[in-house]
Specification:
The structure is a single chain. About 50% of the residues lie in helices and about 10% in strands. With about 140 residues, the chain is α+β, with helices and mostly antiparallel strands. Strands 1-2-3-4 form a four-stranded antiparallel sheet.
Length: about 140
């Protein structure tokens, strides 16, 4: 599919079966039909969001860069918004323009927690050795 086509939510909602599955992520329409059986999370995950906006579900999982590359190969085209369409969840547009969204802050939190645990372990070991040395005297 080298040509992209602009689709509406109405068009996308007609593609919600395993053999014909479209999803919307960050206002782009993707044809996930060929990827359903390969999806690491199982086909149910894709079928649950088939024919609708899957941005929140996609970002909540924290997909890898490889998953995002696979996604780009499935692009059908941009979503054409019309009156009466569901509005994007808050933060979708910002996440779409920044790329990874909140992944950087989540990674920073994980590193911080490990640093605190490591520091706490070192302090506990030092206190243990200190008390052990003083009890022998």
């Amino acid at each position: 599919m080298s040509e992209t086509q602009e689709l509406t939510y109405s068009d996308v909602s007609e593609h919600s079966s395993k053999k014909d599955l479209y999803v919307v992520i960050h206002d782009k329409v993707y044809n996930a039909s060929t990827f359903v059986d390969e999806h690491p999370g199982g086909e149910e995950v894709l079928l649950d969001v088939g024919g609708q906006d899957a941005t929140e579900a996609f970002e909540d999982v924290g997909h890898s860069d490889e998953a995002r590359e696979i996604l780009e190969r499935l692009v059908v085209g941009p979503l054409k918004r019309q009156a009466g369409d569901p509005t994007p969840k808050s933060g979708q547009t910002a996440t779409a323009t920044t790329g990874t969204g909140t992944q950087g802050s989540a990674a920073g939190l994980g590193i911080g927690v490990y640093a605190i645990i490591l520091l706490g372990g070192a302090l506990a070991f030092g206190a243990y050795k200190y008390l052990q040395a003083n009890s022998e005297k």
